[in-house]
Amino acid sequence: MKIAVTGASGLIGSALVPHLRSAGHDVVRLVRRPSAAPDEVAWDPAVGTVDLGALAGTEAVVHLAGAGVGDHRWTDDYKRTILDSRVDGTHAISRAMAQLDPRPRVLVSASAIGWYGDTGARAVDETASPGTGFLANVVRAWEAAATPAAEAGIRVVHPRSGLVVSADGGAWERMLPLFKLGLGGRMGSGRQYWSWISLRDEICALQFLVEQEHLSGPVNLTGPRPATNAEVTAAMGRVLGRPTLLPVPSFALRAVLGEFSSEVLGSLRVEPAVLTAAGFAFQDPTIDDAIRSAIGSG
Predict the structure, then answer these.
(1) CATH number of the domain where residue 83 is located
(2) For the chain, how many structural domains are there in total?
(3) Which range of residues forms the domain containing residue 165?
(4) What share of the chain is helix, strand, coil (3-state, %, to 5)?
(5) How many C-beta atoms lie closer than 10 Å to residue 251's C-beta?
(6) pLDDT per residue as tens, the chain (298 positions)
(7) Cα separations in angstroms, 94 against 3, 48, 86, 146, 275
(8) Distances from the Cα of 279 to the Cαs of 16, 189, 212, 215, 276, in angstroms?
């Protein structure tokens, strides 16, 4: 299958591209500059242009591009960047897919569990209504931007990813060095739920969504057992063999992270009901497994 991937240089994309190729797929990468290699396709999500000729024959698109949510302090300007990078890019790629002849069969368009807002200790799955807050609003607009592809009869899947456990990016890239030094600890009360997924389960799940023709709509990409921050902290200590005695108080997180601290201190207990019902087999079903996988000992 010919599969196009946006965001191919990011944490997930850089792992997904070789994974798909090892499975026998022909993968092209969309790049935001003139293409310089046979497997590159030029696009400009801000302007809305895509090299349609180079996408000819594409059967699936995995759209992962978007500005990092935790990469910068949430100023008004950066919040606009977070929103625009997702909405503009998704709209551009979905319109391009609708114009291709023949059209691709599927668009797997990245989304996030931020859709659900703060759920506290309440477990939610894909049937839950949207929550409130900045990220919930972003995710609603992000998913809606894929409408042109859906209206063209293309199967659209929205993988709502949780916290990806990896040493190469995201929250765990920042946490692992501290925990390895014995300087880690729970954040805030520690009672807030973190819905996580290992990187290898994330990329296998994305391939699964491409290949399973009966799946469409929202699909939670989270491990089967959400864990509280205190449980995550304890697992880090077990796996790394280090003490975890230095809690980070809520006020300190707010001082350092600003508005983004609400995402660290908030609680999202999200369950992967659709993946589980479809028969997806997790390689890392527990947080301990995911951490071992991230550090290369799993």
Answers:
(1) 3.40.50.720
(2) 1
(3) 2-294
(4) 40, 20, 40
(5) 10
(6) 999 999 999 999 999 999 999 999 999 999 999 989 999 999 999 899 999 999 999 999 999 999 988 777 889 999 999 999 999 999 999 999 999 999 999 999 999 999 999 999 999 999 999 999 999 999 999 999 999 999 999 999 999 999 999 999 888 888 899 899 998 899 989 999 999 999 999 999 999 999 999 999 999 999 999 999 999 999 999 999 999 988 887 766 676 566 666 667 789 999 999 999 999 999 999 999 999 999 996 5
(7) 14, 10, 12, 5, 24
(8) 20, 35, 10, 12, 5
**Secondary structure E strands in the chain:** 2-6, 26-31, 40-44, 49-50, 60-63, 106-109, 111-112, 123-124, 155-161, 163-165, 193-194, 196-198, 217-221, 227-228, 269-270
CA terminus-to-terminus distance, the chain: 30
Torsion angles phi and psi, residue 74, rounded to 5: -80, 75
**Residue where the block lists tokens 């994309």:** 13
The token duo for 228 is 């509280």
